[in-house]
Specification:
Helix content is 60%, strand content 8%. The protein is mainly α. Helix 1 packs across helix 3 (50-62) and helix 2 (39-46) packs across helix 3 (50-62).
């Protein structure tokens, strides 16, 4: 499992860990039941504080992505991917609603808005 920490972003390190691990689970790179590194092991490999990793793991646990068993470690949980995708879709809808309102009030045609969205969607992030 490869986590890449960037110092060129305003996103906190624990959020970088959380979002990358969620992406690995959603893509199937990490499967239900797969072990994930201990907090100490991940902190050591990334050269960061164990407390930072602990915060990331707490968020992943809260969101249903990992399960931790005392003495055994942390594993990818049998969480509901549909729930996560629904949540992400809801977030996207909020932004699209705002974009539609701006476009409508500014006289930007729907076809132009669709073209812009398609351009952003195809871009590599």
């Amino acid at each position: 499992m490869e986590i890449i920490i960037s110092s060129n972003t305003s996103k906190p390190i624990y959020e970088q860990i959380t979002s990358q691990m969620k992406a690995m689970i959603m893509s199937g790179e990490l499967q239900t039941g797969d072990p994930i590194p201990s907090m100490r092991a991940l902190a050591k490999s990334l050269h960061i504080s164990v407390i930072t990793v602990q915060k990331a793991y707490e968020d992943l646990h809260r969101d249903g992505f990992i399960e931790t068993t005392v003495g055994r470690g942390s594993f990818v949980s049998a969480q509901n991917k549909d729930f996560f995708q629904e949540e992400q879709q809801r977030r996207a809808e909020e932004h699209l609603q705002e974009a539609a309102d701006i476009a409508r009030s500014s006289g930007i045609p729907l076809s132009k808005l669709v073209e812009i969205l398609a351009m952003f969607y195809k871009e590599e992030g």
